[in-house]
Amino acid sequence: MNFSYFRSDEKSIALARLYCWMIGFLYPAWSLIIYLFLPGEIDDARGRVSFGAAYLSLGALSLKNNQVLISAFPAIAKVGYVALLFHWFGLLKQSQMSEVYVMGTFIVAISLSMAFAKLSELIAFSVLLVVMATFVSLRVGGRPEHGVMLTFGLITCQAFTVTSLFMRSKIEKSLEIAEAMTKELQVEMQKRELEESRRQGEFRERLLRVIGHDLSSPLTVILQYNAKVTRNVQLGKIQYSSPDIQKAVEATFRAATQITEILARVKSYISGREEDRHVELVSLNDLV
What we know:
Number of domains: 2
Number of helices: 8
Helix content: over 70%
Radius of gyration: 42 Å
Mean pLDDT: 63
Distance between the termini: 82 Å
Structural class: mainly alpha
Low-confidence stretches: 1-8
């Protein structure tokens, strides 16, 4: 047994919309056919058409892109279903058998569509329905015309229910396919994210290697300047106030400043605070 018809999930909403459309078309059409075959048995054909129009309107409302309305649609269908049951019991109490057969058949059809997922269950319930309907008809003094309507109603009920079961199967399969495609797309997106993360990691690693290699050049220059200045001072070739010393200090300062800026930029980029930008490989020694 499967009673998920009145839940607010995607499958239940699709089924509720399907039943509203089918009832909206079939119920007034069947009533008009009985009216033509058995004049006088149903004298409210206009009401049947109005009833079908109401169900068609419910089906049309469910197509609007309104999330609140769509979520509440199964509950609205449930209220209509319960109201239909109360009306049917009232007709049965008044012994209006023509009305009871017409409305009761569609109540049973909707119930079967919601409740039974196997054909064997449907057949067993239909046999029980025939026995109970025959018993009720005899108890209230049924006429042969009622038997005609009962037979016609059961045939319609079977056709309606089998169609509903088939459509429910199609809807469930479509939802399963959509869910599988969604999962496959998610997996593909995760693979792309992992590949992009791997490429960024490799790029940063290469960048660090290149910078580490190129930093050796300006550091060597700084060490050479310091060694030269120290040696010349020791030999007495230059004084601390000499312009050569000032030039050496200025050159050393520029090289140290550039190295500091490079290291700060690399640190910011690796930590993710720096926006991605086009990077060209250069020789730091040339800059110094």
